[in-house]
Amino acid sequence: MSPTPSTTSTAPTAPTAHRIGVLGMGTYLPRSRRTNEDIAGDVGVTADWITERTGVHTRHVAAPGEAASDLAAAAVRAAVAAAGIDIDQLDLLILATSTPDELGPSTACRVQALTGARNAVALDVSAACSGWLFAARVARDWLAGDPCTRYAAVVGVEAYSKFIDPADRGTAVLFADGAAASVLGPVADDGGFADFRLGSDGTGAHHVLIPAGGSRAPASPGTLAGRRHHIHMDGRAVRDFITEIFPRVVDESLARNRLRLRDIDVFITHQPNPVLLRRLGDRIGIARERLVIVGGEVGNIGAASAPYALAGAAARGLLTPGSRVLIAAFGAGVTWGSALLTWTGASVIRLGPTRPARTVPLSSPLPSSHPAPAVQRSTS
């Protein structure tokens, strides 16, 4: 699959009125986890087979009573607290997901209600695993162009476990649940986002999708019997797309900004498959210590992957004020994008399980309790 160059860019257009960057970040992972040992039997392979081919070791799974909005609301609250503002200071709340609570209204409106962000305009962006980057572009332009809008929450979230066929090896070993949010706002003139480039090629839409449940194939006994409400993925086509697009967006971003690989302090990407990412990073020439890979600990959490990796890099001390970050994303649609971000220092609050949760097979029921999460705070 060769993506056509349907792209949008902010460079080399006139500079915005003021620079917009990251003021705080928050992440949330559900309590229950599934390891490779838990799911190997359902998909007919060994735990070692999964590790060797994907690099994923564990996945967090939402409880039966947890929806995407619940995960996102926790991450947004954490990001707002990390940014040191009150929730009612949010002027904008943009949510990116492929697994909304309902087809309508927007899941962002659900999160607005859950968090009490009563002054925020709330809307969803649908760009699959590229969604957080697309949403960040919308928020950056909105904040830069409207002097009455100061703070935006941008959150990526997925509850993929609700849409996984436990016997489908191609998806069950990769996809998981989680949320990551950022608060964007004004930063110093030498910081924040400096460049975006986004792209789409709708001729590849059939490679990853949930075929039924929308207006083309409404729910019916036939769609249920055909298991068409689960994620369907052509793994080979997706691999070929990532293999082509990841190096391309890196090369184009560097060329547009007259930079070299060594000028980038940290590379943040979508996290589809850690083994594939490391292989491509080596091929591109990215030093391994500069390519952030978190998929091993959380799996593919879709629109939450890139911001979760960014938050993880900050929490691990990889980012300091002035660090130059290249963000690359790619997902279903197909969609892709890149951005440059100069880190200006931001706190990160990560919410996770209070203790190791019972791990269970994918086909087994999960506990519905929601224990208070552990809190990890870091500042960079």
UniProtKB/TrEMBL annotation:
Region (Disordered), start-end ranges: 359-380
Superkingdom of this protein's organism: Bacteria
Protein name: 3-oxoacyl-ACP synthase
NCBIfam families, alphabetized: PRK09352.1 (NF006829)
Organism classification: Bacteria, Bacillati, Actinomycetota, Actinomycetes, Kitasatosporales
GO molecular function: 3-oxoacyl-[acyl-carrier-protein] synthase activity
Occurrences of domain Beta-ketoacyl-[acyl-carrier-protein] synthase III N-terminal (ranges): 123-202
Residue ranges of domain Beta-ketoacyl-[acyl-carrier-protein] synthase III C-terminal in the record: 254-343
GO terms under biological process: fatty acid biosynthetic process; secondary metabolite biosynthetic process
Keyword Flavoprotein in annotation: no
Biased composition (Low complexity): 361-374
Keyword Acyltransferase listed: yes
Keywords for the protein's UniProt record, in alphabetical order: Acyltransferase, Cytoplasm, Transferase
InterPro entries, per database record: ACP_syn_III_C, ACP_syn_III_N, Thiolase-like
